[in-house]
Amino acid sequence: MNNKLTTLIIIALSMLTFVFSQGGDPPPLPGAPNQGPISGMGWLAMSGLILAAKKYFGSHKK
Amino acid sequence: MIGFLVKAGLFYIVWQVVYESVIYPDGRLDQFLAVSVAILAKYGLALFGWNINVWDRLLVIDGYRGVEVLNGCNALTLMALYSGFIVSFQGPNQKRIKYLLGGIGIIFILNVIRIMAFSLATVYFQPHWDTFHEFSSFIFFYPVILGIWYQWTLLSEENTQSSSELSIA
Lengths: 62, 169
Known about the structure:
The complex is a heterodimer of chains A (62) and B (169).
Chain A: H1 2-20, E1 34-35, H2 41-61
Chain B: H1 2-26, H2 28-47, E1 52-55, E2 58-61, E3 67-68, H3 76-88, H4 93-124, H5 129-140, H6 142-168
């Protein structure tokens, strides 16, 4: 357990090092950068609702 | 079912309030997720020989349009949506924590892979980038999340059955 915790802490710290080690300004780009927000979360929420309803009503039929 | 809906509804209301009033104004969690995803995507692509530059949330392959990881791209909302189902649907509490942490970790890794794919898309099919982006969540996230949610419902079913058997015995 302690070993796992130590490994996790080391990984987290090394990630922080990566995060804070970046600097400088980006070069001029050929166009505005692409931006990728996550789309369609309503569909996922709807699917989760259907899954829950199916499980609930399915198990109550038995 | 009503219990699930009430719990899920409450979870998302509380999440929205906490996000809008604490997490978003503070900005550190969003920033950490976005920048760490960008940097891990850079190192992921470096494994395949790509030389990618990262400035804060911006990933750029020389000569091509970059990819910017905004707050909406860092998968924090998706992690909340995922967690809402696991928290609200009945199941064993000890495994619930494993499913929560494991699922959030998987979503984070999938987002790194998704951003890697976005960077490569700027090179190979920039004209179709928007279409690729539109469907990317359905390719990278949703099948996996639905799969884990389904596993969770099976686990909860087993748990309910075994506890009812125990009570009969």
